[in-house]
Specification:
By secondary structure, the chain is an alpha/beta fold. It is built from 23 helices and 29 strands. Strands 6, 7, 8, 9, 10, 11, 12, 13, 14, 15 and 16 form an eleven-stranded mixed beta sheet that branches. The protein binds zinc ion (3 copies). One zinc ion (ZN) binds next to helix 4.
Amino acid sequence: MGTAAEGKRIRIRGTVQGVGFRPWVYRIAVEAGVTGRVRNDSSGVTIDAFGDDAALRRFEDALHASPPPAARIAEYESVAIPAEPVSSFVIVQSAPATDRRVSIPPDLATCDDCVHDILDPSNRRYRYPFTNCTNCGPRFTIATDVPYDRGATTMAPFEMCGPCRHEYEDVFDRRFHAQPTACPVCGPRLELVWPEGSASRSASHFRDAIDEAADAVRRGLIVAVKGIGGFHLACDATSEAAVTRLRARKHRDEKPLAVMVPSLDAAEAFGILSPVHCSMLGSTERPIVLVERRLEAGLAPSIAPRNRQVGLLLPYSPLHHLLLADAGRPLVMTSGNLSDEPIAFTNADAVARLSGIADVLLLHDREIHTRCDDSVATVVRGAPLLIRRSRGYVPRAVRLRTPVLAPVLATGALLKNTFCLASGTQAFLGPHIGDLENLETYESYRTAIERFQRFVDIRPELVACDLHPDYLSTRYAEGRSERVIRVQHHHAHVVAAMAEHGIAGPAIGLAYDGTGYGPDGTSWGGEVMVATAAQYERVATFRPIALVGGDRAVREPWRIALALLMDAYDGQPPAAAEALLQSVTAAERATMTHLLREQVQVSLSHGVGRYFDGFGALFLDRRSAAYEGQVALEWNQVADPSVHRAYPFDVNDRTTPIELDLRPALRAAVDDTLAGVPVSSIAAAFHYTLAAATAAAVARTVKVFGPLPVVASGGCFQNGLLAEAVGASLKGVELRLHAEVPPGDGGIALGQAVVANAMAIGDAGAGL
Ligand SMILES: [Zn+2]
Ligand SMILES: [Zn+2]
Ligand SMILES: [Zn+2]
């Protein structure tokens, strides 16, 4: 070291705690020959590094080169400080935090090294289902407080044995400061529980509880498995009898069930995978990934009835790896609940609620402190898109380009609810809550918000909610003491997309979904708007559809089909067109026709999702949907992607907003059907008609407002074909889709938070 010592203070923000970041910094500091210290602080990690110029440069280069796999560096800042005469590099223990806004890391899938450990008979963790290290293991779901340290996790009651303690304290060990580290001697244990009166209790030739559970699965039984964020119900995914029994007991109609497979090779056998699918399947977040399924590959048909896709996921805990290996077949892994209830996550809860569904329960004594469902991802236009953002992602922050001035809580929507807490440039989306339609879910929502507030240390001064007065999320907001700001549903969708892309606005936003409260008393969902965070102008919408019986029309989309026919043919649809609805009786048609003519029990919906329902019901002759959006999904999947034609449509620009009118398209599609054109071609043309109508609306908007960025949000943009068609139709304009924030209502809270903040600032400005 020839030159004089210098100093650097380096601040790193992002997911850098609980992911092996400090030991990694220590190792590269030692290698680079710098002295100093590294410590966790309120917003990440701070390093004071001392050494000569060359050593410091080596150190900083290494910091940028290859951080630990689970770390995410969001911000990096390096400033010169005076040199200090220290002779070594040390890791400073966490002090009790004053500002506690530290990131607890998300739960991390088991790393390859740990998988190797549990499969190696000579390793002391052979077949140990709670093996983890600095690079993997549970985090968010076991954290009981901040900062993230063993004492503030549900591992606190387990005292480390000598060898574990040694690894934990050895900076060159993979388990250095791995908070949940454990081994068979000192850690949590499994227990297989056969419900009272079960005659299935088995012999002693099993190696352990996992072996016995795997045997149960092979015999066609249903096993409740305690996982990372809650319980799964597992059964043999190749056994139609087992899957049918699971559906019947769980009261789960036709909603697809996720299937866990042991490896990427196995995933390839059941689905058609692109490299993007593979990288998502294998990521540390381990979401369920929707893929086109190979129908001949042997999965039970009732895994996903009337659905060409299947949700696959890879094991993400050692318990999964061992269970899959022992079972020797793919397993259904669906959330451990009755339909519509929150997922069970405590042993007592599972015994109480799942004993009627599962034949046997695989429990353990490491508590799950916060429930967190599996995340769900898909690929749209060649890029990953999250449909449900939960385990593996929560509580990682979404960075905001423009900071919020006051801390804000956004309470989300009704279905697929998540909430959001934002402060400064960080927006924390909470775990998937589900549909806020019953007391159990509502209770879990309230608890989750309270806990999350503590974890991210945000005391909201503003609360944002939907305009809909009857949503439980709106009622919850109104029950709080802070100032409440109501945000229009589709404005929130659009701003969520803008926020994800760092667009301050104005932007042209497409918000296509099933429903959302419109201030004019109709249901919106086919909206083209020009939006900033504070305001929106609705420039175009789709011609409204008459829904007879409101929500009933969503469950029985033949009602929508008939309404579309009545509208397209001025109340006199040809008999041949009505005859497409063979599953509907003449009497039912007559009643519905009467109600439509007299406008009885009719509400109006602009939702693009309702057009999918109606067209799908008519041309596929689907009377009812087993779950929300089922017919729309079928209408998407039946489309032939090689067909790129569009039907005619009208643009009514005498109204404000202008109205996109698909009546000509419906008539053309009916003509096609009667002429024998395949339904796959009609469905594709429907998608391209929506795209062409969208492009027409965008072109008119650009004429008035000038060229603006275009973002797309709303549940319809989970549909890859629609996204592709719209993207291709917008000539010379880039269509920006969501990526990590779901386009559906699971992403809406982010937009609510940003809008509420902007509106509050606007109000303050107006008062000056
Ligand atoms: Zn590991
Ligand atoms: Zn141990
Ligand atoms: Zn929506």
